[in-house]
Write a structure and sequence with these properties.
Layout (H helix, E strand, L loop, with lengths): L1 H11 L4 H18 L7 H8 L3 H13 L3 E4 L2 E4 L1 H19 L7
C-alpha cells in the first residue's frame, strides 16, 4: 500500500526547473547519438523529455541563452558547455540523493 501511495505522489508532483533542464539536455544528447546528421529533432526531444511543445520551446530558449544548446533549422545540439554541465551535475545529484534531497531526473 505504501509503495502505491509514494508512486501516486511522485506522479502528481511537478518537476522543478533543474530537472526539466536535465531531462531536455539528456534527451538531446541521446537523440543526437541516434541521428544520422548529429542533430536531435524537436518532436523527439519533446516526447523524450515529456513536455508540451510550448513548454519545451520556452525551456530551449532559456538553454540557448545559457549557451548550453545550439538550435537551428537542422535541429538541436548540445554545446561543449552543455556536455560539461551534464558531466558535472551527475555527482552533485548523487550527493543530494545521499542526503535525501530528491531531484527527479
Amino acid at each position: 500500500m505504501k509503495l502505491d501511495q509514494e508512486r501516486n505522489l511522485k506522479f502528481l508532483r511537478r518537476r522543478d526547473r533543474l530537472s526539466v533542464y536535465i531531462d531536455i539536455l539528456k534527451a538531446i544528447l541521446e537523440e543526437c547519438r541516434r541521428s544520422d546528421n548529429g542533430f536531435a529533432k524537436f518532436t523527439r526531444v519533446m516526447y523524450r523529455a515529456n513536455l508540451s511543445a510550448r513548454r519545451l520551446k520556452d525551456r530551449l530558449l532559456e538553454l540557448s541563452y545559457l549557451e548550453l544548446i545550439k538550435w537551428n533549422e537542422h535541429g538541436l545540439k548540445l554545446t561543449e558547455k552543455g556536455r560539461a554541465f551534464l558531466r558535472e551535475v551527475k555527482p552533485f545529484l548523487k550527493i543530494l540523493a545521499k542526503y535525501g534531497v530528491e531531484v527527479s531526473t
